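Tutorial sheet, problem 5. The three components below are modelled jointly, 1063 residues in total.
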Amino acid sequence: MSILKNTIMAFVMVLLMSGYALAEYGRVPVNTIDPAIIEIDEGEFLGTAPDGATELMDENGEIFRLDSLYGKPLILLLSYYRCDGVCPVVADDLKRALEGTTGTLAGLGGFERGKDYSVLSLSFDSLDDISKIKMFKKHAGVGDEGWRLAIFKDPEKIQDFTRSLGYKFFWSERDRTFIHPNVLVFLSPEGRVTRYLYGSAMDSSNIKIALAEAGFGKEGRSAKRELSDIFLIACYSYNYKEGRFTPNYPLFIASGSLVAGFGFTIFGIVYFKRKKRRR
Amino acid sequence: MSTKTGKGKVIAEWIFTTDHKRVGILYLIGSLAAFLVAGLLAMVIRMELSEVGPQVTDPNTYNVMLYFHGAAMILGFQIPALTGFLANYLIPLQIGAKDVAFPRLNALSLWLFWMGIILALLTFVVPDPPDIMWTGYPPYSIISPGNTALYASTVLFMGFASIAGGVNLITTIIYMRAPGMTWGKLNMFVWTTLGAFIIQLVFVPVLGSAVIMLTMDKYLGTHFFNPASGGDVLLYQNLFWFYSHPAVYVILLPVLGIIFDITATFARNRIFNYWACVVGGVGGIVLISGEVWVHHLFTSGMPNWIRVGMMVSTLLISVPVGIMVLSLIGTLYRGAIEFKTPMLYAAGFIFLFLIGGLTGIPHAIASLDLALSDTHFVVAHFHYVMAVSGTFAIVGGVYYLFPKFTGKMYHEGLGKIGFVVTFIGANITFFFMFLVGLGGMPRRYFDYSHMPELQDLQQIVTYGAFILAAGLFITLASWLVGLFKGKKAEDNPWGSRSLEWTTKSPPGPGNWAEVPDCTDYDPYGYGEDR
Amino acid sequence: MFARIRNGLVVFLATLPFAASGALASFGVEEPEVEGHHLWDVDDPVDGFHHLWEEVMMDIIIIGVIFALITLYFLIKYRRKHNGQEGRPPKLSRAAKMGWVLIPVAIFMADDLFLAAEGWTLWKKYREVPENNIEIELESAMWSFNFTYPNGIETYNELRVPAGTPILVRMTSRDVVHSLYMPDFKVKEDSMPGRITYLWFLPKKVGEHVMTCAEYCGVMHSMMHGKVIVMTPENYQSWYKQEQAKLVEGGAGS
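Model answer (structure tokens):
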């Protein structure tokens, strides 16, 4: 397992770092960071609940609790606003994914931001403040309906919070940047982690399935939503090795054989009926 | 072949037979062989569990024995004995056909079955016998040192055998009925077997695909059920039970059918509310059978909505089964019951099936099943309902047809003694097993050193198992005595009105000299007003 | 037909007390033990379990005894008295035929749906975790239960819990399917690789309980068991702090 995860992380990190390396070409040796040190142990942290009472502050200085966003699936994107490299790019990727323009399953299948789910960008950088949020918002062009950007009200809580999600980051003095995983954390309406989705899988299809998974079976949902979610969850399953949802092949094979079973029975009856009639 | 003489010729005739009666008898021999081996293993298993600590085996051997016991009893004994032996032997005789629709397909089905039996027995020869239980849940079956391929191929051979048998007998029932044999004149056994074969045909392919994927996962490195690569461990469990729960009704339906026929014959009585039994009972079971499998996964983290749905559908299966039991008891009403050995088994069946069926209700309720599933309580439940009730029906059926297929009478005294001993043994064994289960003993345990207080009960269960085995050996003796020293049987020793008893005992090739006319026929045409 | 139904009703009522007493005698369920000095406002599903269990046992014993008695009565009454005797099957009118289907169907379905509703109510209790629980992680592996407490303490095959606090066990598996079964708390849930499952229970009385693996997991399946140790809240706290201190010490030392 850990080899697989290292592979995923290596992949993510290479992507991440290569962008950065292009920007700062010639100054940063990129191959000295072991991606395993910021790896999230999904087996351990799936199902955990971060502290819902954590107080956050948005760009207007309004203070709110994390659990005020609960009640519908929540996509949590941990990053920092001073970041001028990859963070705005990731936010933009997420924005485009939520618009339903990437991935193989067209659209977000009726998931409406603000109504069916919400997004929270949260900074783990204790030096970020309201003005940084505003700048980031302008720069990345995100933060409309159902997408809040926030910082921790109490910077002391940051470490506890990120640790409870298995999210690791550290400041690299030499690179003058935070090394951190680019990951979407999906929280269920009760605030439990249902999925980690890495940057490389940040497209509409994967987000749609992860949202279906996060909100499935919770109260106050329409039958239509529930049905389309059953379909998504049954037909796709999360692939820990590739870090994305892949079709659930055994189900298709088994359904095919069930259809074959019905087919045999019906075909047999019809065929022999004809044969008998001919006689 | 015709140049051969003597024994060789006889053996060749039997091996290459396409006669449905011989196919049936060869099915019986194969399934009894599986029963004997798996039954003896059950004795070793019971000896092992009789006391705390290792007794007669080691955990590895024990797990292999449990695997074989489960797989052989269900796939090698119960299903073949009912849908192979009884169905093959009885159905053409009961519908007035000279043979089945496709005699060669029938022979193929028999060979596949024997291949399956041989493969299953290879468990004791190969260096890495499967230890994955008859359920073969991944990931254990993928990482196990045991031979998963042997398990998968046993399942596949048995599966193909029953698909071939199913196609054949469904066609036979639909198109080969004698003139005048309308749907309303079919024996209950024919109806129930028709239902069982429909279930087999529809659901066997699902299990087949599941075990093929399992084998590919283990030997070809695919990741169908590997969570790291997008597979889902729970999916196999779903697919497995999607077939294997209906398989319970594949066993139950013919069991009820043969019990109905025995009861009607010996009570000289009509089936009480025949059409209710056919439409409501058989039809209802076939319809509901495919929608209840999740009750095997109540503790496996399935979503809540599917658990409540399957809880209701599982409880509702009691409705068609209840109708059939009512009809069965109603068939006794104002009858003239003669207690020959087959009838004893049919009467015993009612009581055993009541216990087995009713103890299914706590299992159907998800919240109670949290404490009961995968314990000895469920083991006792399905042994009552399948193993004991099913075996009573099979043994009763063999007694019932013994004069027909051997031409001799079995030993009545030994038969009755055998029944009493078996009945007592079965009840001691499995009733106390309920209590063991309530004490918290999980199934598939080699040892229970952390629950030493269960030892007394476990010992009673073991004693019961030995009584049960003794009863079955007495039964075997009754058959063997009958086979070699029994007096010649009449064509219709029971005075039955059913069509199969109008032939000679044993029936010759083609069953009847000419196809019987069934215009005025009624398989249950009893009654003094007639 | 009405006469028959009336007769049936008489038999039903006549056997009722017999069945009920039999049920009580043979399946008297021990009362759940409650310790006096703890007060908690948690609705323990185990109480519901005992209640529903008694109800279901009553139900199946009544049905079973009725059916068995009728069968036995028929078997004795209608035995063949002389050779050549035939049965006298009742002639059922159309209405009687329908009645013999619809009435039992209605009774069975009413019973089934009643039990399903009861079962569902209890099920929800089993699945809805009360507030203020202690959340403990379980990673099962061949062949042990590995628990991790909120402060990072790890225990193997030993679950120490304070009496009176709901315990939420959130689980996954490292290798194959296992199942955490605690017979005394009437609860069980499978733990699987790649999936998260949970169960909760309410330890009430100080003492030791068995926990054991209920899903076949290989050679040592029957040796995969441990203890649930219910401690007084004070003892638990001191143990918890002590272990935490050891952990910090160990962490500093390494």
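Marking note: The two ends of chain B are 51 Å apart (CA to CA). Full credit if you identified this.
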